[in-house]
Amino acid sequence: MSRPSIKEYEAVAPVAAADRNLGFGDLLATWVGANANNGTWYVGGVVAGAAFAGATMVTLVANPIAYVVMALIGFIGFKVGTSTMALTRPSLGIRGSYLPSILNTIQFLGWTAVNTFIAAISVGYILKDTLGWPALGDPGGNRSMLLGIGIMSILHLVSIALGHHSVKMIERVGVILVLILGLWETVVVLQHISLSQILTWRPPVDQTLPLGKAMDVMAAFSLGWVPAIAEFTRYTKNARSAVVAPMIGANLGLFWFAFVGIIGAIGAAISTGTYDPNNSDPSTIVSKLGLGVIALLVIIITSTTANAVNLMAAGISLTNITRRIKPIAALWVVTIVAAVLTCVPLVVGNFLDSFIVFLDYIGMVFGPLCAIVIVDYFFVRRGRYRAEAFTDLSGEYAYTGGVNWRTMAVWAIGVGFFLAVRNVDVLSNSIGATYPTMILTGILHYIQCRIKPDARIERGEHAA
């Protein structure tokens, strides 16, 4: 039997058939592990500000839509064989793809920092329970946080040491622990607080989250995973593994842990008499409900499974900007940078405000970009991308100096539209601004391609 390949491909290099070694189970475990984690729990606690019924509704509506978008781009990654950011080259241009790659690196570094910060809180509580060290919020608590960030960073380096191969291994083990934790903590939370109390609880008026705002938070949260999808589907053996497995895994992981986050935050609010979305992170909820050290340890593990995906996406995005840095080296670089970023909340103070701004940024930037990629591949070029032209600055994706300024303008219009309408009452109280922005951007991209189509597309130079 031949030895399995351990090659990690840079962003623009299409994965060879012999190196496509991720199966249905691998993708299923990866996306359960990516979504059944601290961040999902935390965002569930944030949208609990819409009360149980509102939070549950937006979870069941906003996220499946986002994962359909993810599945479509995952299919493109499977067909073309390159990373997600490389797939923006046909629409934005070779050099035009650098901007989303930079933003994508930043957003996944941010997600890594969010998950790491929450896991570091768990480390602090463990140190408090076992050694009497101060935890976050206690005088001197930053010492425990810094140690926790250091421990998590070491775990992250181990999880990405061999690229997608080590991610595959960590997800296979982690998903078992994730499912055990989710079941156990769901039962324990419901033992502490009756379901009837949870169903009838209402947040204070000044902390109520409008339904549309909750939709945007959830949509942005799930859309945040889309720019990571092709990093894995390009290694899959068939379209079913690339499309179906991530959708099932992502929805399963998110529904479960968002539900735990919602009832955990509401349960803590009922138990303490105070609803504070700043304390919706799982480490704080676990401590308040007395679930013990084991729950805190598994929170640390689930952070590792989620951040393995985050760091893969951030590192491979770097290789779409420059081919001078090799994929494994890029993964180590982003891991170290993420450790530094995780320390920022210790300085800026309010974690929730930073988190909400971060989610707004994701919806504002990547929602329109996803719409452009989907419309460009399926409707403008009708499934015909040539990966060999992704690096040719004299070829069909070169445009003007490597940038397709018309599509860049459409992207900018989408971002501007989101900023203009996100606080409009009719949207903030209903469907939110994220999905209307994506629909508008996709339509505009198709129209601008049809009104004045690129000559090379018309001549069919992109055809396989």
TrEMBL record:
GO-annotated cellular components: plasma membrane
Topology in the lipid bilayer: Multi-pass membrane protein
InterPro entries documented for this protein: CodB (IPR030191), Pur-cyt_permease (IPR001248), Pur-cyt_permease_Fcy2/21/22 (IPR026030)
Sample GO molecular function, one term: cytosine transmembrane transporter activity
Superkingdom of origin organism: Bacteria
Gene3D superfamilies tied to this protein: Hydantoin permease
Keywords from the named record: Membrane, Transmembrane, Transmembrane helix, Transport
Pfam families hit by this protein: Transp_cyt_pur
Transmembrane parts of this sequence: 41-61, 67-87, 108-126, 146-163, 175-194, 214-232, 244-270, 290-316, 328-348, 354-380, 403-421, 427-447
Coiled coil (UniProt feature): none
Localization in the cell: Membrane
UniProt similarity note: Belongs to the purine-cytosine permease (2.A.39) family.
PANTHER family, per database record: CYTOSINE PERMEASE, CYTOSINE TRANSPORTER CODB
Name by which UniProt lists this protein: Cytosine permease
Organism whose genome encodes this protein: Kyrpidia spormannii
